[in-house]
Amino acid sequence: MAKENILNSAVLKQIERIKETDILIGIPSYNNAHTIGHVIRAVNAGLVKYFPDRRSLIVNSDGGSRDETTAVVNQTEIEDPRLIMLSHRPNPIHKIVTPYHGLPGKGSAFRTIFQIAENLHAKACAVVDSDLRSITPEWIELLIKPILLEKFDYVAPFYLRHKYDGTITNSIIYPLTRALYGKRIRQPIGGDFGFSGELASHYLTKDEVWGTDVARYGIDIWMTTTAIAEGYRVCQSFLGAKIHDAKDPGSDLSAMLAQVLGAVFNLAEAHQNIWFSIRGSEPTPIFGFRFEVGLEPINVNLDRMINAYRQGIADLSSVWKKFLPPDILGNLKKLVGSNGANFCFPDTLWVKTVFEFLVAHYKNKMDRGHLIKSMAPLYLGRIASFVIETYNSTAAEVENKIELLCLEYENLKPYLLERWRN
Amino acid sequence: MQTVDLLVVPVQKHSLQEEVPIMRDFFEVAVFTPIRCLYEELVLFIPKLLGMAVLIFLGLFLGWIVAQFVRRSLVAMKFDKLCSQVGITTFLEKGSIHKPTSELLASCIYWLIVISFFMIGLRTLDESVTSGVFSRFFYFLPNLIIALFISIIGFIISKFIARSVLIGAVNAQIRSAKLLSIGVDVLILIFTLSLALEQLGIAQNTIVAAFSILFGGIVLALAIAFGLGGRQLARDFLEQHLSRRRQKEREEENQFSHL
Lengths: 422, 259
Prior knowledge:
Largest sheet of chain B: none
Mean pLDDT of chain B: 77
Distance between the termini of chain B: 134 Å
Strand content of chain A: 5-15%
CATH superfamily of the largest domain in chain A: Spore Coat Polysaccharide Biosynthesis Protein SpsA, Chain A
Number of strands of chain B: 0
Shape of chain B: elongated
Strand content of chain B: under 5%
Shape of chain A: globular
Low-confidence stretches of chain A: 247-251
Number of helices of chain B: 8
Structural class of chain A: alpha/beta
Largest interface: A-B, 21 and 18 residues
Low-confidence stretches of chain B: 252-259
Number of domains of chain A: 2
CATH architecture of the domain at 140-231 in chain B: Orthogonal Bundle
CATH class of the largest domain in chain A: Alpha Beta
Order of helices and strands of chain A: HEHEHEHEHEHEEHHEHHEEHHHHHHH
Oligomer: heterodimer
Helix content of chain A: 40-55%
């Protein structure tokens, strides 16, 4: 079958002119005119400061922004080289600004970036989000150097985040990925990654995924899982704080949860022969100097989340009873009785619930979209419980709590295997 | 002179010996002949009945054999996996049908063979009586199959959409999510039923009228509910819209006067 051409003629001409590059930094965007200037400046500075003798390229893969995003990308340069301790004016770095082809979403933007990386034989690549407010030039060094100097294939980010930020990551994605594939990648859906040109080409060989949730929010977990499961060398880099447009864990959730969990569950099915034999987990090397940072507070509407859980139990039990064992459903129902401050969703119950959803998804117990979307009220209940439990906890205490949850996922893996096989 | 002919009719006198053949004739006509006829008909009918029974059993047996063969062949060809991959299994599960596709297909073939043999069996009973039924059955069969198909598809779609509405409404924290979902389910089922009955030609006008009244009633109820609930909103909207329109008209008038 002929390979689909996803690059337009203008981009192909630019590629012909540039011929080759050592480093490629990809920035997906959609209406990010307010923040993308800062991201471009940080990337530019990182490239000229840490890789002055390398051929570098910045690719902005845009989803048809209706604001000034592309104009900002084209116009942004380093204002004053002395600000980043450069004594000379650096050579301008190549830029390609292109709309992407395919389903609207981050994954399609990344696919365009992978294709350009392959065409230009890039040695090391990185992708960073365009809504970041905390990115510094050092991020580029930390995402690229492990690839160029240490021969890693994939660099996952390691951030410090507010205890209520990244709730899908903390309660499902990190512990589940760790339990399944045996690698401790703290931010598997962080959004900012480094990867080798070889891995970018490998991603492009997976033609079947670009019409799925991978083309949207599912891209991050797909990249991480593919790298781990298919034996690429994986590490992490400490990037400090991740400050971006934080979301209340109870808002704008259903579609995001469906896309991310859909991708995770599909990947678990595709790689079942790999994770069946894995027990426990091992740490992954972390590059970068660890330091503490102050984090912006996040407001959480606890009542709204508990009410969502209660309504879910009242209205969706008939849906869940098609695949949840009676004891688990019974225990979930019992939680409704506890009032606000005493609301507690135990780790074991949560892990078993996630495993049951995963197994039901694998066994096609009902429409997969319905299955995952119906999980949203349970997820909100779990987050409400987590918020109550950690209300007065420090960052370290919260991290310990997440570690205990991860161990519960690992300990209950035989339960998952048994349910998966029967 | 007038002459009169006299007809003398001899009076017949029946003796007991003469009455016996009359009774015999009566029994012959009233009892024996019908019994004989019944017997003759039974003699003709029983083989036909046996033939029908044999045909039905043959249909059941042949249906079972063919269904087993089809099912095993499909399983060997990994047909279920293929259906799962192309989404047929998921589609069936949306309608709460959890049987493997190979088994469903085998069941359909089984029942098709059984029904066909049953109809052939019916025809052996009495061609003159059953041929009408036979021809009417096969004339009606396509409509019946289409009506069944409409009902099944409608049922699957109603369950799927009702569940979508339920999950969406719960995630949006709409209080009456379940009621909304049931309403959607019932509405689609009524619509499906009216389509299926129309296909069968049963009380076409009544069904269409009933559906129109029901659907119109629901829309009217919603319109009244919105009208009462959103009276202020509607008034504000109309006032704004009309005042803007009047302003525009005035501007146009002014422009026109300048010209």
